[in-house]
Amino acid sequence: CNAVREYDVADGLAIIFTPHTTAAITINENADPDVCRDIVMETNKMVPMQDGYRHFEGNSAAHIKSSLFGAGETLIINKGEVVLGTWQGIYFCEFDGPRQRQVQIQVVGR
To answer: Which terminal residue of the chain has fewer beta carbons within 10 Å of its beta carbon, N or C?
Structure first.
């Protein structure tokens, strides 16, 4: 993760966070793009765009999906590198866009 390398931390934690209520951060397989497509497909089945939601802005499904996935992840840094499994990648999930978004990273360690 290039952003973490800029901090010059050998061992520690990186917290990645998005301050939006209709977006999320998650970790999952990134070797096969069909995994991401399957996640999107099944998430859309679980949380349809229109389902009698009370929130009047038309993006209730995006709020629900964001809550299910979460706004952030904590990552381990070992020997200056983010520890991820062989097939893992970090995903920014956009549920109500496209729109301008922020991702914040805080690194702690030595």
So the answer is: C
Contact (CB, 8 A) for 71 and 24: yes
**CATH number, residue 10:** 2.60.120.460
| Backbone torsions φ then ψ of 60, nearest 5 degrees | -60, -40
Domain count, the chain: 1
pTM above 0.90, yes or no: yes
Determine the 3-state secondary structure of 2 from DSSP.
helix
How far apart CA 91 and CA 14 sit, in angstroms, is 15
Residues 24-78 have pLDDT tens digits of 999 999 999 999 999 999 999 999 999 999 998 999 999 999 999 999 999 999 9
